[in-house]
Structures are given as C-alpha cells and as structure tokens.
Amino acid sequence: MNKSTRYSREVRERAVRLVMEHRGEHDSEWAAIVSVASKLGCGAETLRKWVRRAEGEAGVGAGMKSEEDERLRALERENRELRRANEILRKAAAFFAQAELDRHGT
Fold this sequence. Notes:
Layout: H1 9-22, H2 29-40, H3 44-58, H4 66-105
C-alpha cells in the first residue's frame, strides 16, 4: 500500500470533519488535530495536511484550490520568461546603441 492510499477517502473526510467540529472545544486548532489524530490512529501532521487540503478545496483558510494553484504557477513561470526576455532585449538595445555610437564616432 503506498502513502497516498494508506487511509481511505472516507477516513480522511471523517477525520477532517471531526477536526472542524471540535475546533472550539480545544485551545487551538493544533490541539484539536492532535486529539482527533490520536483517536483515529493517524499522525497529527498528516491530519493537519488533510485539513489544509480540505480548506483549500473548499476555498477557505490559507490553502488554494488546485486550479488556482496551477494558474499561479503558470503565471509565475510566464513572469520569469518575460523578465528573461526583457533582460535580453535590454542588453541587445545597449549593444546596438553602442555600435551606433561607434559608427558615428569614427
């Protein structure tokens, strides 16, 4: 059994739902996660990741939906490519400007 299928989808959904329901009964979200994780027999960090993913898919919390995340990555990639192209154009313009000055100077 690989890492991603160690726990069934139903178990993950139930664990996340329990954390959401019992957040108010604990001092912090982490305390709720630790409590639920110990009862279900999974790791607290694993459960925290499930909660963050569920929040992201629901459009709440610090997480982002996977489509938005992919779009952000694509925009960042495009931004890097455009910066690179601008730098090349800047250097080419400086080169040709210098060549023009040299041509008129001699």
